[in-house]
Amino acid sequence: MFFSFLCIGILVIIHTVTAAEFQTHYCDLNISSPINNNTLYYSNLIQVLDSLASDTSISDNQFLHTSTGSIPPDIAYGLYLCRADVLPNDCRNCLLKAREDMNNNTCPFSKAAVFWSDNCMLRYSNFSMVSTMNSSTYIPECNKVNISNLDQEQNNFWQHAKNLMDRLANRASADQKKMFAHDVSSYNETQLIYGYVQCTPDLSGSDCSKCLQASIDRLREYCYGREGARVLAASCNVRYEIYKFLQFSDKPGKKRSSSKLTITVVAIVVFLVVCVAICYFFIVKKWCRPITNSDLKKETGSNIDESEMITEQSLQFELRTIEEATNNFSIENRIGEGGFGVVYKGILPSGLEIAVKRLSNGSAQGSLEFKNEVVLLAKLQHRNLVRLLGFCLHVGEKILIYEYVANHSLDFFLFDPTKQANLDWSTRYKIIRGIARGMLYLHEDSRLRIIHRDLKTSNILLDDEMNPKISDFGMARIICGSQTRAMTNRIVGTYGYMSPEYAMHGHFSVKSDVFSLGVLVLEIISGKKNTCVFQPGYTDLLCHAWNTWKNGEPFKILDSYLVDSISENEALRCINIALLCVQEDDELRPSMASVVLMLNSSSIPLLVPRKSSFCFSEKNQIDTIRAVGDT
After folding, report:
1. Which pairs from 294-297 meet CB under 8 Å and 24+ separation?
2. pLDDT band for position 396 (50/70/90)?
3. Which residues span the domain enclosing 565?
4. Which span out of 368-377, 383-392, 519-528 was modeled with the highest average pLDDT?
5. Does 273 map to a domain?
6. What are phi and psi of 60, to 5 degrees?
7. Beta bridge partners of residue 620, listed in sequence order
8. Active site residue 454
9. In this structure, are 386 and 455 located in the same domain?
10. Between the CA of residue 126 and those of 28, 113, 234, 600, what are the distances in Å?
11. Cβ neighbours around 14 below 10 Å, total
12. Which of 6, 190, 353, 605 counts the most CB atoms within 10 A of its CB?
């Protein structure tokens, strides 16, 4: 019974949220001289939009304005305003989507435009907008449902909504620092009205008040009697709903006198507490606890508690079955060898082909990574991740059973002069995008937030259609909840792919994986390993790529086999994205979601990468790694 109510409650919440999600825009076509992609103004505009959507700009700002250029009319001005309750990451994702839409023929002939959505507003023009109130550029949006079919009830509801919005407008315009206000008011014994108003913080108090009052008047003009409504103007926005659409805690302006309302509120609170308790049990207790214990054991070096693995009985194979499948681990069935043991090809009695990773007994780390990988992969399903079929625990044996991937690993083709020709540009580009999608799943879309920590060419397997599958999760770490970074005293991974902050200080995060992806992309398009020496003065692939980019010759790093199949636009974007990923400051690196977006859309302008100071000489790099090992 409880779960029935739980499901109904979740469906109601989902319906309520999705009903309010929207995006819209306004293109100012009255400005003379329509925009042209070859003009200086367009170039300046791209730089403005890039600056506004950068990680460093959004982290500490709800509102920001900037400009690029020095001579009118080629100066481009831009600003953004995010809703006050929106987190920085959600703000940036909103701005990235707005920027993509603006460059996707949303306003192809306009030198000025405004984009609005639930979380943000992005605006640009060829004239300064700062400290200038604009309430004439606006778009209304009304809930499709009337509060009632009776005129008297509609008028009563509107009066309550109007009173709430007027109070909020007075509070927002009086608060020169925040310039926004929100509250909730009771309409009757069972109904609440939630309100929110906001001005761009560059306005004076009087201009903010004028903008808000004009917008509130339009609520009645366009949306009288509706359950919810909003008016989005260029300098302010107002909104009311009969459901909670903000992430703020409610702080009603006056006490609820109705006992019925009190009971309703208490019931909602109890329901939410129960939901949170259930989520805590399933997420923290069931998912995070095994890895937390394993992580502790990693740091102390204690032995694995194999009894914890017996709970995964549906995945467990008998040793005899694996021996028969691999012809008793014969040398003819050996297909590879990794850091933790040998990999064999096998065939189950059902005819299914499998890959069997047999951990070496001499590996002190192997048993720990074994448990970690099984627990992780048992919960992950994605087309770009290798699929774990099962495992085997026996005296002296720890074995992992995977789906068989026909075309070996990426390095098998990429670094072999006789096999590189099999990887034309379309194949390499498909591999790059597939790896990025798989990593996005690990970082954001799976039930667990996972940092791989050992992303490299030998851990990318290729199926019979050359689709990439990320493998080897023995070093991966689960990060629970909203956490995005952690640290360790035990540095593991592969030199050449490790980010500087991880190799030097043990700090790892999702941005560490982004760094590794950047190295991978450069290796894929160049056909060279990161540690290769190309010519005097260039000690590794990253420095070589940066210097060719800086000198305006980025295509010099491309594999010679790509000459006949290359798409120059795609290749240039890949080089740009890779250099963004390997920037030394992890805060400047894009998120994996941004990487996927940039790879999949040629219309999104790219930021200019910054030069990193990790282009040391080869001797200094070796000395640095040795120093890390000594600690």
Report:
1. 294/368, 294/371, 294/372, 294/375, 295/477, 297/368
2. confident
3. 410-630
4. 519-528
5. no
6. -120, 10
7. none
8. yes
9. no
10. 11, 10, 15, 29
11. 10
12. 605
The CATH number given to whatever domain includes residue 58 is 3.30.430.20
User: Is 417 inside any structural domain?
Assistant: yes
d(CA 623, CA 630): 10
Mention every residue, 6+ apart, whose C-beta is less than 8 A from residue 1: none
Would you say 607 and 580 are in contact if contact means Cβ atoms under 8 Å apart? yes
Please name the amino acid found at residue 198. Answer: Q
Q: Are residues 510 and 472 in the same domain?
A: yes
- Say yes or no: 415 and 395 in one domain: no
375-410 residues labelled b (16+ CB within 10 A) or e (exposed):
bbbeebebebbbebbbbbbeeeebbbbbebbebebb
My answer on whether 426 and 559 are in the same domain is yes
Tokens of residue 461, six digits: 């397997």
Cβ proximity of 449 and 480 under 8 Å = yes
H or E element at residue 183: strand 180-186
Taking all residues of the chain, what is their mean pLDDT, rounded to a whole number?
Answer: 78
Q: How far apart are CA 537 and CA 558, in angstroms?
A: 19
For tokens 């902050």, name the residue: 501
Q: What is the per-residue DSSP string for 514-539? A: HHHHHHHHHHHHH-S-TT---BTTB-
Q: For 309-367, how does the pLDDT look when each residue is reduced to its tens digit (9 = 90+)?
A: 434 456 788 999 999 999 999 999 998 876 667 899 999 998 999 999 887 765 544 55
Same domain, 467 and 432: yes
Q: Does 263 fall in a domain?
A: no
For the ranges 102-106, 345-349, 531-535, 572-576, which has the lowest average pLDDT? 531-535
| The pair of three-digit structure tokens given for residue 282, joined into one six-digit string | 């399933």
Catalytic residue among 101, 183, 202, 454: 454
User: Whole-angstrom Cα distance, residue 373 to residue 339?
Assistant: 14
Residue 17: its H or E element: helix 2-20
Q: Is 476 left (phi over 0), alpha (psi -120 to 50) or beta?
A: beta
